[in-house]
TrEMBL record:
Top EC category: oxidoreductase
Keywords on record: Chlorophyll biosynthesis, Iron, Metal-binding, NADP, Oxidoreductase, Photosynthesis
Reactions mediated catalytically: Mg-protoporphyrin IX 13-monomethyl ester + 3 NADPH + 3 O2 + 2 H(+) = 3,8-divinyl protochlorophyllide a + 3 NADP(+) + 5 H2O
One Pfam family from the record: Rubrerythrin
HAMAP family: AcsF
A single GO molecular function term of this UniProt record: magnesium-protoporphyrin IX monomethyl ester (oxidative) cyclase activity
Described function: Catalyzes the formation of the isocyclic ring in chlorophyll biosynthesis. Mediates the cyclase reaction, which results in the formation of divinylprotochlorophyllide (Pchlide) characteristic of all chlorophylls from magnesium-protoporphyrin IX 13-monomethyl ester (MgPMME).
Native source organism of the sequence: Synechocystis salina LEGE 00031
Similarity comment: Belongs to the AcsF family.
CDD domains referenced in this protein's UniProt entry, alphabetically: ACSF
Domain Rubrerythrin diiron-binding: 89-221
Documented EC number(s): 1.14.13.81
Protein name: Magnesium-protoporphyrin IX monomethyl ester [oxidative] cyclase
Keyword Metal-binding: yes
Length: 358
């Protein structure tokens, strides 16, 4: 059925095609890396496990999963106003993140084809999964009279260069936190079916297993490269990426608390559960995890939440741009200080953490 409501508050590059969200420090990023360095990696210390993971990718458990059923065949006009806007933003952010993974994995598969066939096939099969996810999310946006031009997105977004080990940290955490986000929503809606306002959430149980398998692949890659985990620099970088991923999610989700309220979830409680589970999971490969149960951790994140509200208020106010920039400086300084203090909070060595099994 065709929705009749107008699309609230969205710019379009052409009718029905949403202009990509403005890039900020909190939006999903597109990545590139040193492909030759990846090709030269010695994966022999963990080759058997990587081959076992490849076999799981080949089985393709979700081959027939991402098929829209009759539950989508209705009008969604009852999701209107601010709720509609928040829901479209959720779909766009999720689609962009999945498509970012597709582009990176596809290029890795192409570049490694003749240099490291095992890794090349793994990356190609992960790109297959991410393409399905992105396509399914983009089709969901069409139920709200919008879609993303993924080809335009490919050409228009800036690409961030990360060395391979940083790609491994970031993508491992992205896949694992994606698993915990999806499964937590699914389990909540399974217990509270009246909160399931749109059928895409019913697909999350199988969907998140793709994220989990991808995370396991990067886990195996890192353990095949001991220098990514076992020296003092690795501990500093693991701490940095854990904090970056957790802080980004918390700041994004608290800003969109009304979306989670639509699903019967309290954004902060949801995020704390996801952060705790992802932190524990990371302890199976990372040498350290964050002390997320220390009250200071969330107190400082809440200061950043308040600061970001101040930044948005300045953006919405009148006056010259340079005046706004000056007004923002102390807020940026405060956010930077909070991040520094969070980074230097004493982490937990997983060898001393009884709650994590290495």
């Amino acid at each position: 059925m065709v929705n009749t409501l107008e699309k609230p508050g969205f710019d379009e590059i052409r009718p029905g095609v949403k202009a990509p969200a403005k890039e900020t420090i909190l939006t999903p990023r597109f990545y590139t890396t040193d492909f030759d360095e990846v090709a030269k990696m010695d994966i022999s210390p963990n080759e058997d496990e990587l081959r076992a993971i490849l076999e799981e990718f080949r089985v393709d458990y979700n081959r027939h999963h991402f098929v829209r059923n009759e539950s989508f065949d209705k009008s969604w006009d009852h999701i209107d106003g601010e709720k509609r806007q928040l829901f479209v933003e959720f779909l766009e952010r999720s689609c962009t993140a999945e498509f970012s993974g597709f582009l990176l994995y596809k290029e890795l598969g192409r570049r490694l084809k003749n240099k490291n066939p095992l890794l090349a096939e793994c990356f190609n099969l992960m790109s297959r999964d991410e393409a399905r996810h992105a396509g399914f999310l983009n089709k969901a946006m069409s139920d709200f009279n919008l879609s993303l031009d993924l080809g335009f997105l490919t050409k228009s977004r800036k690409y961030t260069f990360f060395k391979p080990k940083f790609i491994f940290y970031a993508t491992y955490l992205s896949e694992k936190i994606g698993y915990w986000r999806y499964i937590t929503i699914y389990r909540h809606l399974e217990k509270n079916p009246n909160d399931c306002i749109y059928p895409i959430f019913e697909f999350f149980e199988n969907w998140c297993q793709d994220e989990n398998r991808h995370g396991d692949f990067f886990d195996a890659i890192m353990r095949a490269q001991p220098h990514t985990l076992n020296d003092w620099k690795a501990k500093l970088w693991c701490r940095f990426f854990l904090l970056s991923v957790f802080a980004t999610m918390y700041l994004n989700d608290t800003q969109r608390a009304d979306f989670y309220a639509c699903l019967g979830l309290e954004a902060r409680s949801y995020d704390k559960e996801v952060i705790e589970k992802t932190n524990e999971t990371a302890g199976r490969v990372f040498p350290i995890i964050l002390d997320v149960n220390n009250p200071e951790f969330y107190d400082r994140l809440e200061t950043c939440v308040t600061n970001n509200e101040g930044l948005r208020a300045i953006d919405a106010s009148g006056g010259p741009g340079f005046v706004k920039a000056l007004r923002k400086l102390p807020i940026f300084a405060s956010n930077g200080w909070q991040f520094i203090k969070l980074y230097f909070m004493k982490p937990i060595s997983v060898e001393q953490y009884a709650g994590v099994v290495r």
